[in-house]
Amino acid sequence: MIEVDRLVKRFGAVTAVDGLSFTVRPGHVTGFLGPNGAGKSTTMRVILGLDAPTSGTALIDRRRYDTLVRPLHEVGALLDATALHGGRTARAHITSIARSNGIGRQRVAEVLQLTGLESVAGRRVGGFSLGMKQRLGLAVALLGDPPVLMFDEPVNGLDTEGIAWIRQLFKALAADGRTVMVSSHLMSEMAQTADHLIVIGRGRLLADTSTEQLIESSARRDVLVRSPRASELAGLLTARGATVATGDDGGLAVTGLDAAAIGDLAAEHGIAVHALIPRSASLEDAYLDLTGESVEYRAAAPEGVPGR
Amino acid sequence: MTATAVPPAPPAPASGPAPSLLVRARDALACEWTKLVSVRSTFWTMLVAVVTPIAISSLVAAAITHAPGRGPQPDPLLPGLLSLEYAVLSVAVLGVLAFSTEYGTGLIRTTFAAMPRRRVVLAAKGAVLGAVTLIAGELVAFASFLITQAVLSAHHQGVSLSRPGVPGAVLAEGILLCVVAMLGLATGAIVRHTAGGIATVVGVIIVPGILAVLPAPWGARIGRFTLVDAAHQVTALHPATNLFAPALSLVVLLAWPALALLAAALMITRRDA
To answer: A55-98, pLDDT tens digit by residue?
Structure first.
């Protein structure tokens, strides 16, 4: 379990993490989500004792990281897959880290096999693709068979097969009762990987909820209705307690009544309905709604393309 | 925290009882040893450090015997020291690289995540690199002594290893590589950047030599605190009289890396990795 409590991290005048509190529980894949510059990596570095917090705490199973003895048996982490000495072989890289925590040769061979790197273990990592480096980083994270795992943007550079494999691995680790925290700036990725989401923006907590609830709660769930007697139908719907917004093209966006109720009401009054389309917000929309205010670096809308 | 669904029991930690300090020290040394011997730069710098002094020491000795005969005779142990110049620089670079490559690539975060006690990392790197450079240094010192004395003996200027003061001076020459390796290691940990670290350590070794051109007696008064003059004093058969005595010069020589390592130990825990 990872517990972050009122965490603040400032770099000079910049506040990277601003009073962040959350708990990552075992048995789930928890997505740690936010736009670039939201403070995800900084938070993870503080949890790992690499950056000192300005105030607040980050604990792993109720202990500070820097008090852990042989920490690889408690926490496995992959922060930056490219953080390697290019002249070292994959096996030498893993072996050096394994030895620092008293982990033997057999386990090194196991994680090399688990991550599919056996055949390239004797090659210098400078020549590895990003995907291979990600696998190497995963192998290091798994070395100590730890109950807590943290991955910073682990999907970068993996091919389709690799992504499917890594998702399955995360789910298997969580099913094993481990705490699995995976950061990403892509909601679409997390939707398929995480069952719980912690969303941050500008160093603050925006949401801490299950993936399903996030979709439900930010629901712009409505029904698009098209009818030749739209204004008449709109009046009837409003009278039934629905909220109706009329679009530029004359379509009605109806909330508060479901498609069946709307159809029945129209039929009762003999109003023809040409379209009746239930719409639900995608997770991506929910995410954009949440983080819209907190994007650190926003691109200008391209010319001629109206904003959403 | 709130008690929601009861989480499944996490897997039992693979480690048994907390390992002893001795075991943890062995782990850290094994890690740093593996790192040191698994990169090619170690092989090349050590090759330069060992081969160049042995290869050029006879040339330096020959040059001294053929120098114009005016002025006092050069110290018979001087060729051994002079032949170490390339070795000193390459070993200083090796020391800088031990930390600067890890900071440069970001690998330092993996290292500190595996060993959160950062001073243990510094100590382990120091012990491994120190042992390697000390052994290499003594090997080089005695080998180049034998070679230079063979050349000098032909001109009746040589000295024997059994002469009082000689074994101590050659042993002292042997620690020079270790001294600069530790200076480089500390510099790498402080500067955290390869080019900057190399420039700094080379500057620390060489630039104070400029002080020697100050008018007497200031050249010697300040110069005796420099690495170069201290090295000359501890490795000479006939030490200069206007500098510190060899014993005090040895303290000066060891104080440089000791203070640098102390500064590195203080700074390494205070900055974000």
So the answer is: 999 999 999 999 999 999 999 999 999 999 999 999 999 999 99
* Domains identified in chain A, total number: 2
Host domain of residue A238: 222-279
Q: Which residues of B touch A73 (CB under 8 A)?
A: 13-15
Smallest Cβ–Cβ distance between B40 and the set A3, A51, A87 belongs to A87
Distance between first and last Cα of chain A:
39
Amino acid occupying residue A29: V
Q: Which residues of A touch B28 (CB under 8 A)?
A: 100
The answer to whether residues A102 and A205 belong to one domain is: yes
The whole-number pLDDT of residue B209 equals: 74
Mean pLDDT value across residues B105-131: 97
| Shortest CA distance from B105: residue in chain A | A83
Can you name the residues that pair with A225 across neighbouring β-strands?
Answer: A252, A276
ipTM here? 0.88
Q: With contacts defined as CB-CB under 8 Å, which chain A residues touch B5?
A: 27
pLDDT, tens only, A211-253: 888 877 665 678 899 999 999 999 999 999 898 988 888 889 8
pTM of the full predicted structure?
0.85
Sorted by where each begins, the domain ranges of chain B are 26-65+75-268
Final residue of a structural domain among A201, A217, A233: A217
A119 is a domain residue: yes
